[in-house]
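Following up on my earlier message about 2-acetamido-2-deoxy-beta-D-glucopyranose. Here are the inputs again, as you asked, copied directly from the submission form:
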Amino acid sequence: MALAYNFLFFCLSLVFFISHSEAKTSFKPKALVVPVTKDSSTLQYLTQIQQRTPLVPLKLTLDLGGGFLWVNCEQGFVSSSYKPARCGSAQCKIAGSESCVESCLPKGPGCNNNTCTHFPGNTVSHVSTFGELATDVVSIQSTDGSKPGQVVPVPNIIFACGATFLLEGLASGVQGMAGLGRNKVSLPSQLSAAAFKLDRKFSICLSSNGAVFFGDVSFPGIDPKSLIYTRLIRNPVSSAGASFEGESSAEYFIGVKSILISGNVVPLNKSLLSINKEGFGGTKISTVFPYTVLETSIYKAFVKTFIKSYSNIPRVKPMAPFGACFNSSFIGCTHVDAAAPEIHLYMPANSMVRVGKHAMCLAFVDGGVNPTTSIVIGAYQLEDNLLQFDLAKSRLGFSSSLLARQTTCSNLTSNVFKF
Ligand SMILES: *[C@@H]1O[C@H](CO)[C@@H](O)[C@H](O)[C@H]1NC(C)=O
Ligand SMILES: *[C@@H]1O[C@H](CO)[C@@H](O)[C@H](O)[C@H]1NC(C)=O
Ligand SMILES: *[C@@H]1O[C@H](CO)[C@@H](O)[C@H](O)[C@H]1NC(C)=O
Ligand SMILES: *[C@@H]1O[C@H](CO)[C@@H](O)[C@H](O)[C@H]1NC(C)=O
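Thanks, got it. Here's what our run produced:
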């Protein structure tokens, strides 16, 4: 009996000792990863994180240029760790909020006295509202790039409360948007500022089997020195649906200097390529536009140059949203792209999309006259490219098509997720 008692005591102290030492050397991930899938009916890229206490899996539309995470708090939001951001708090300050709700009824997530607000926006259907800022825990899987790591709880992640009507136009089952933009409260910024201090970098690989990696990751088979880098440019004027005065844009702009199609320069009005004082012009990268959108004069010159460069490919009737489609029997099929045509927008881009059995269209659409941004590089052009946003160095590294390296986003993600 005494022996049994000692044995039990020994076990208990061992357990205590182990958990104690674990708490002391708390786990420090180098990188976190969330999965990315493509919704085939909306062409949106979706991700999933866990939030709240108890944890709830949340499907979110990925918004590269979105300023922060927003989720619908109007329906089914239950969490014992939900904390509204009190007016004047550090959370309100880093979010740049300049408004305060003094009283709100009925009290609940999204409606509390003395809290600051921001403007959660649906960047697909272009509707915004104002919503309470709050914090809650999120839980994300760690990785080193080659294998899955443990799931890490990250407390006090700031987000905005959206409303049910904001979900209109988002893929089925989605509860909000995950903003990866260029400010202090976007997910990458908050994760790198968390207690475990990730590098101020994140990488995206878009595909139906892709991922977003936060922090410093080395990918098997991809030498970081082989990435091509370009400077990230700031747009001083917010491009969000609603914003506070003087807020700069959270979107990622790059400096496209010219467009080449198989070596032929597309003639264009250069002043459209730079951002003016009002925030118009320039080139941004977006995951919520399925295809690249070009201002009308750029689009027309682009199609004209393409047709001149490939005069041997017969055109077929255009199919919306595309304006230029071709008989696919005349388009060579290389391993790298669905088609041979080479288009360089400073970054080489996937150029053609198959539409039906016999046609392929230029995967670019006409953005009309006077759009806010002249060139929006859309998600299709980024598929199976590894894009690394280095926020500390203010630069973007891209792999060019991974397919040319006989690899895909699926290859990069297949090792890191536990299924
Ligand atoms: C919120 O403010 C209203 C109006 O000042 C007040 O009646 C109410 O008691 C407050 N609610 C809480 C939970 O403090
Ligand atoms: C070029 O674009 C700028 C900005 O939209 C416009 O003001 C200017 O008139 C354009 N120039 C030509 C030659 O079309
Ligand atoms: C495409 O070209 C093939 C081969 O010349 C031809 O048989 C077919 O009818 C063409 N399709 C269209 C839609 O023009
Ligand atoms: C990528 O995945 C495919 C399919 O699973 C496999 O055949 C191929 O060898 C992988 N490529 C690399 C570079 O690991």
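One observation from looking it over: The CA atoms of residues 161 and 415 lie 34 Å apart. Hope that helps, and feel free to reply on this thread.
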